[in-house]
Automatic annotation (TrEMBL):
Its main location: nucleus. Belongs to the GINS3/PSF3 family. This is DNA replication complex GINS protein PSF3. Residues 89-185 form the GINS subunit domain. The gene is Gins3. Component of the GINS complex. GO terms for cellular component: GINS complex. Keywords: Chromosome, DNA replication, Nucleus. It is found in: Chromosome; Nucleus.
């Protein structure tokens, strides 16, 4: 008998989990950059040439998938340099610090937290500010997300999740599941309340870290 597919959660911090569909999709997000040296036979892969043998000249502006940017980035050899996407630049960090709840994160980038954490792999003097903004944005939006998930029982939630990034949507779904499970238990339709899969996965990670 085949077992049901069990979703694998995204990685944490600087590392991706390539068993996670979310991380695979996130790694395809593009970064603006520049070729610091000629890149042989990469023009076609980056949509800048007609043939597989075409090269990218030094100084060319690029739009590079995150996975490739991480592979090419080398501070010693200076193969490529990467720039911050606009949502992580100072102007947008100011908007987030004023009121993070007004920002449509899904429109600006569906993997805001994961992608922003990956940017810390690149040498950038603004990394501390980026990390702080990501953390504070999550903290300031978290309560509203969970409050919304607990106050929308048997309702259309599409408008509530439309502005959330994928991590926030997962948290919203977890809150909804907890609410639905509680309502079923309260009505006598369930024998027990089980722990959220997010909590179970977190516990497994902690035990794995301790064993290591």
């Amino acid at each position: 008998m085949s077992e049901a597919y069990f979703p694998v959660g995204p990685g944490l911090g600087l590392e991706e989990n390539f068993l996670s569909l979310d991380d695979i999709l996130m790694s395809q997000e593009k970064l603006p950059g520049r070729a610091e040296s000629a890149l042989p036979r990469l023009a076609f892969a980056l949509g800048q040439g007609a043939g597989t043998g075409d090269s990218i000249p030094e100084g060319s502006k690029l739009e590079i998938p995150l996975w490739l940017a991480k592979g090419l980035h080398d501070s010693k050899r200076r193969i490529i340099s990467v720039e911050l996407p606009k949502i992580y630049k100072e102007a947008w960090r100011t908007v987030f610090s004023a009121d993070a709840n007004v920002v449509d994160l899904h429109k600006m980038g569906p993997y805001y937290y994961g992608f922003g954490s990956q940017l810390l792999n690149f040498d950038n003097p603004e990394n501390p500010e980026i990390a702080q903004t990501i953390l504070q944005t999550f903290i300031s939006r978290f309560r509203r997300i969970m409050d919304s998930s607990q106050n929308a029982y048997n309702e259309d939630t599409s408008a509530l999740v439309a502005r959330l990034d994928e991590l926030e949507r997962a948290l919203f779904r977890a809150g909804q599941k907890g609410l639905n499970d509680f309502q079923c238990w309260e009505k006598g339709q369930a024998s027990q309340i089980t722990a959220s899969s997010l909590v179970q996965n977190y516990g497994k990670r902690k035990f794995t870290d301790m064993d290591g």
